[in-house]
Amino acid sequence: MQVNTRFISKAFLFSLSIIVILSSTTYSQQNKNLNQIKSTTYLSEKFELGPGEVLAKGIEDIEFPSGHIGVKSFDVDLVDEQGNSVPLYETYIHHWFAIRYHLNKDKNMSHDIYDHSKPFGGPDYKRNDGTCNTWILPHYWGLGSESRGTSSKLPGPFAVELGNPANITEGWEEKWLFSIMVIDTRGTEDRKSCSECRCDQFNLPENFYNETKDIHGKPLSHEYKGGIFCCQNYFQCKLKNGFQAPYRKLALRYTITWIDWDQHQIPVRFYVLDSTDRVIINGSEVIHDCQAEYTIPENNSIDLVHVQKASIPMKKGGYLIYGTAHMHTGVVNATLYGQDGRILCTSTPRYGTGNEAGNEKGYAVGMSVCYPKLGSIKINDGETVIMESRYKNEFLTGAMGHMYFYLADRLPHTT
């Protein structure tokens, strides 16, 4: 059964200097461990798309390194049957998410990923440590059009620990799935509007607004102008009169680098914060009302930048090891601030200038990555951070402002 992803629907690398302060003993051991880094490239199951069509689905039980490992990087590309990278102006990568789950070996995965009434033995989803991780943004890795140009590499001895037998119930196994949304924009009347999932560009089903539920399970408002709800699986964006092109088969090609886990690795926790998070504090309870996306309205103001931000209390902090943002075309930047106003990480886009995949003109094809000097930036337990996303101040639907970052509880020994 395919996973219903309606509600989370959603090659250039920046050269960055990683400053690591280590003792000679630790540094030698680290180099020894780096020699053991492994890398494998996989191909997801193929999916078929025609001009103007949306694919928004889950791909279950994807190939993944086995054993007790530490993942150092996870990179994804969209390719055709010949293995060629597909340019964004032909098929737009709205988002891909890699989601971890544990499954009873005696049970089949036959449940909606967002069905909280699943019977005993169904998939147990292992979400990230962020504040929007229930069923909106539960993933460990995930980007969009910026995938090819954003580094996912974790520096030094830091890694995402996976496959620890002590954390897997006997009789269960650890698995992964992809949740993806891609839009074939060949021959569309307005390629940009299709990429933004503007509702008036799609041939929506009859009674769409009455039958479609919003993020809170209520009928979708007619004021909803665009976003993931108008880009559901196999919805059709309007084509130019007479345009015809063949269906084609595509797939996600993904490369994972990892190391067998040992005492020299330092585990990190992965966080996703959302600039739409409307935090409500009810006594000692903190409620996170994340929207996942938002609309920048048409306006005549003189402001060149639209700012969306949220104040988010962090239950548990740590040392910042890595940070970047998932944003859409039109992004200016995204910044994570500490409670005292200090900048923890700013991620800025690179826009394409050519025609080749990874450098498509006008598209956001990469986001910069923060690799702070080890120990220089720490988020305290209970600290309230500010997540701010900034776009050009022009009409935009389905805008996303997500900050991804890794925190570690400790640093390498320096003595």
UniProtKB/TrEMBL annotation:
A Pfam family that the UniProt record links to this protein: SURNod19
InterPro entries (alphabetical): Stress_up-reg_Nod19
Annotated keywords: Signal
Signal peptide positions on this chain: 1-28
PANTHER family: STRESS UP-REGULATED NOD 19 PROTEIN, STRESS UP-REGULATED NOD 19-RELATED
Name the record gives this protein: Stress up-regulated Nod 19
